[in-house]
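ok trying again, last paste got cut off:
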Amino acid sequence: MTFPRPSTQAGFARVAEALGDPAREAIVSALADGKAMPAGELAALAGLSPQGASAHLQKLVDAGVLSAWPQGRFRYYRIVDHDVAALIEGLVHLAGKLDNGRGRWALPCEELRQLRTCYCHLAGRLGVWLGDALVRRGLVVLDGRTGQVTDRGLLWCRSEGIDFKPSRSPHCRLCNDWTERVPHLSGPFPTAILKRLSETRCVAPLRIARALRLTARGRAFFERLGARLPC
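nice, full thing came through this time. structure:
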C-alpha cells in the first residue's frame, strides 16, 4: 500500500498568479504607499475599463493581496497588510536586480531614492537611516527580522508626540529597500512615526508618486536623532 506524500508547497502560486499581470501590477503599485483608493481611480491609473478593473481587483482580493470595503456608492481597495507590502517591495527589488543584469535598469530619480513612502512607513536613504538610528540609540531592539520598542523608545515617542501603543506582536520588521539594497523598518512603530511626521508637516508629498520632501521641521526631527543632513 502506498500513501500520498504530504505537500511541501507553500501555496504561493495563487499570489504569484494574481501579481503576474501588468494591469494588476499597476493597481498594486498605485496602492504601495498604504492609501486606499476607489475602483474607478484604480481603473483609470491602470488604463482599464471599469468592468475590466473589477475582474482584476477581485482576483487580487481573492488572493489575499488587497482588501476591499464599501463606502457610500464606492468600493475602496488597499494592500492587506505590512507583510504583503514587504513582498511587493521585495519583488520590485528583485525585478531591478534582474533587469540590471540585462542592462535595462535605470536608477530611480533622486527624490525617490532620498525619501519616499513604502506602504505606511518611510523608505529610501532617509528611511534606512531612520531605522539604523532607532536601533543605534537603543529605541528599538531587533531579534532576527523583527523588533520591539524599548522603554527608552517609548519615552522618545512621548517626547516627540508619536502615538504608539505597543502590543504583543512585533513592533517593527525589516523590509528590503529596493533603491538602497539594505533594509529599512516597517510595521506599526514606523507607521506611527510617519503618521506623526505627516501630521506635523515634517514631510510633504512631491508630484512624483510616493516621493516626499523634508520640511524645516522634518530636518529638525532628523537632526535630533543625530542626522547630519546636507544643506
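cool. The radius of gyration is 19 Å. The chain has two domains: 13-80, 84-224.
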